[in-house]
Design goal:
mainly alpha, 74% helix, 0% strand, globular
Length: 299
């Protein structure tokens, strides 16, 4: 029988949503930097170097929170399961970024909130009604309108980001389950260590000399990755999975901003049309959450 988590106050859900939007901004920028590195380095080497630099923000968090005690592990099994899903999604994402355009990868991985909505009930005991299902589906249609994926994207390589969506969703659900008893820093550190070790195992089989000019980009990617995942862990600590997960769609809006600033790519009319159902569905989910909590308090 699934464990039913306690109800989440509206204010906490709003904090969770804010964390999700900020975390996706950092993660999207990280993906852009990482995609540039896939041209010259194998996935395992990127995983190792980027994960090594993730420990910089982890060290800051340990210092800020009062010392190594914040890294205490209380749920080794849950931490291990989450780390396993992160390892899988990390390798698959880097491979997908190497083989597919960034926009196509993003479009397919946005199936993740649908997976979370489907599993939040049986895994977390969260109530997910047909209206929330409908809102998430409408948001996903908006993503497809904005990205207009070319038929060529539906090739075998497209299964990679789809698997990323499933693995990431399972990781997020596990995060929600273990976050009550584990600090966000401990979760981030444990999972990052697992990713680093998994990458080290690949180095004897595939590694190339590192150009000194690329080291700053590995450092930037690692710091962005660490900060993003810490904030995303906080998102699932504050809000229900089915409530905060749809705001992963905000990554497309961040990608539009980064594309315009970094590459001179400006959104066309399809982007603006598609953004309407995405934003509307997110606001509708928040509205439904607010009304449900209000009825609970008054009932």
């Amino acid at each position: 029988m699934s464990k039913v988590l306690p109800a989440v106050p509206v204010a906490s859900s709003v904090r969770g949503i804010a964390c999700m939007v900020a975390g996706m901004a950092l993660l999207t920028l990280n993906n852009a930097v990482t995609k540039g590195l896939t041209v010259g380095y194998p996935p395992g080497q990127i995983v190792v170097l980027r994960a090594a630099f993730v420990f910089l923000p982890i060290a800051f968090l340990v210092w800020r929170d009062g010392g190594l005690s914040v890294l205490r592990i209380n749920n080794l099994a849950g931490q291990s399961v989450r780390a396993g899903f992160l390892v899988v999604s990390t390798f698959l994402m880097i491979m997908a970024l190497r083989l597919l355009p960034l926009a196509d990868v993003m479009a397919i991985t946005f199936a993740g909130p649908l997976v979370i909505t489907a599993l939040a009930g049986p895994m977390l005991g969260e109530k997910v009604g047909w209206r929330r299902w409908g809102a998430v589906f409408v948001g996903f249609l908006g993503i497809l309108i904005m990205l207009k994926p070319d038929p060529a994207v539906f090739q075998l390589a497209a299964l990679l980001p789809l698997c990323v969506a499933v693995s990431s969703s399972l990781r997020d659900l596990v995060t929600r389950r273990i976050s009550a008893g584990e600090s966000s820093t401990a979760i981030l550190c444990f999972s990052t260590g697992a990713v680093l070790l998994s990458g080290l195992f690949t180095l004897p089989f595939a590694a190339v000399p590192i150009a000194h000019a690329d080291l700053p980009f590995f450092a930037i990617a690692g710091c962005l990755q660490g900060a993003a995942h810490y904030i995303l862990i906080e998102a699932f600590r504050h809000g229900e999975a089915a409530v905060v997960a749809p705001f992963k769609y905000s990554a497309l809006l961040w990608a539009t901003v980064f594309g315009a600033l970094m590459f001179g790519d400006f959104p066309d009319a399809w982007i603006w049309v598609g953004s309407i159902p995405v934003i509307a569905s997110g606001l509708y989910i928040l509205r439904r959450e607010s009304l449900a909590r209000r009825r609970t308090r008054n009932g």
